[in-house]
């Protein structure tokens, strides 16, 4: 299956009607959570109970930021 970004402009896929579907999809939420947790592992962020200030520079729904906050970071 061809990648969506090669089929049409981005506004076709992430317009006002598609964004809510993306942010409420349990599959997408699980994937974003796993990716964010893996990023914490790769960054070797210590799990010492001290919140770290992390910059999430994504341009998305905030799903990754939610996972970071669930792990006690800001």
Automatic annotation (TrEMBL):
Signal peptide from the UniProt entry: none
InterPro entries noted in UniProt: Bud23-like, SAM-dependent_MTases_sf
Gene Ontology molecular function terms on file: rRNA (guanine) methyltransferase activity
Record's GO cellular component terms: nucleolus
BP GO terms, sorted: rRNA (guanine-N7)-methylation
PANTHER family: 18S RRNA (GUANINE-N(7))-METHYLTRANSFERASE-RELATED (PTHR12734:SF0), METHYLTRANSFERASE-RELATED (PTHR12734)
Protein name: Uncharacterized protein
Native source species: Miscanthus lutarioriparius
């Amino acid at each position: 299956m061809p990648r969506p970004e090669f089929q049409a402009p981005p506004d076709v896929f992430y317009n006002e009607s598609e964004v809510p579907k993306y942010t409420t999809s349990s599959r997408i939420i699980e994937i974003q959570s796993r990716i964010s947790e893996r990023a914490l592992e790769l960054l070797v962020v210590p799990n010492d109970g001290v919140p770290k200030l992390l910059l999430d520079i994504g341009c998305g729904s905030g799903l990754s930021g939610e996972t970071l906050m669930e792990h006690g970071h800001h």
